[in-house]
Amino acid sequence: METIHQTVAKDGVHIPLALMSQYGLKQGAKIKVTLEPDGIRITPEQVEKNTIEKHALRYVLANLGDAATIEIQGLPGKGWQVNVFGAGWPNPLGQLVYDLGGNLISEQSDSPEKIRHAAQATL
User: Fold this and answer.
1) Residue stretches of the chain with pLDDT short of 50
2) Domain segments of the chain as ranges
3) E strands present in 1-123
4) Strands 94-99, 79-86: pairing kind
């Protein structure tokens, strides 16, 4: 846990983006601010499973075509894991990882090239 000390200005408090990034919040991320009796809690705004499904299906269609399907699993407190399958194939070809706000985490996801290579290797 990191502590910063600031003075409340007339327009509020500024939390540096570098610090927010350490907790998975990037510029443009939607957040939820909860006012509690003992303090203020800032958390990522979590999107619903159907929103992740739409994002993942658009990504798969644009990058892999319409012969791929998906299966979504929640990662409690972290986001979403989306397994990508070839149509009718029992084993996943790769995975996509989304944060709580519904943003694709590229460095944790398999690239379209890697997923296509996995599909070709199973033929």
Assistant:
1) none
2) 1-44, 49-121
3) 31-36, 39-44, 68-75, 79-86, 94-99
4) antiparallel
